[in-house]
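To: structure subgroup
Subject: Chain for Friday's discussion

All,

I'm putting the inputs and outputs inline so they're searchable in the archive.
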Amino acid sequence: MRITFLGTGTSVGVPRIACKCPVCQSDNPKNKRLRCSILLEYGAHVVLVDTGPDLRTQALRYAIDRVDAVLLTHGHADHLHGLDDIRAYCFSMEGPMPCYADGRTMERINLVFGYAFDSPYKHALPQLDLRLIDGPFQLFGTEIEPVEVLHGRLPVLGFRVGSFAYVTDCSQISDASIKQLEGLDTLVLDALRHRAHPTHFTLEQALEMVERLRPRMTYFTHIAHDLDHDVTNRTLPGHAQLAYDGLVLEL
């Protein structure tokens, strides 16, 4: 399986609009963070995880010529509001794009993208086949295991695929979900900044979770402009590092 980090930034991205802080003004490309998303490639299939508002930029930057299915973690704007750009992939598909989401996210899609389901101009719209996630499911011959975590008070989904797991937008993980995340080779985990936040792990809280889960390697994502890539990584153990846009993992 090949994983590409399309974006590793927080909801406003990095650099943040109108910000003059050292990270936002940095020339280091690893401090340039689009909104969070990853691409999974296994077998002959391409699966997109989340469709944030930077999707078009990400698709062009990383030459994503096809998408076979979409997994959605939750319905917040920074993870969903690029869904309309999926229509570019629908043009060459024989049927609608399979989009897997929980019930809350489906409700959000129907509210924000209602035109995709009720318009006479179907050929010019994203063709979406919404599929409810209510437990583990098979996707192109591989089991996708949803892992529910809390984003503040909102339940959202992470995903485990074999020995890899992607858990973004997270401030609490239940004991039951921790059991789902044991025995990982690679974990991607939310780590926003040093200062406390009501809906995200701080870097220190994320490190505590890493010590509890003990994956072989962890990459932190959903990173705010508070964390300089190189400076922060020098303070971290070798088995936990900040991810960056364009990072590719071959698992």
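Points worth raising on Friday:
The domain at 2-250 is CATH 3.60.15.10 (Metallo-beta-lactamase; Chain A).
The two ends are 5 Å apart (CA to CA).

D.
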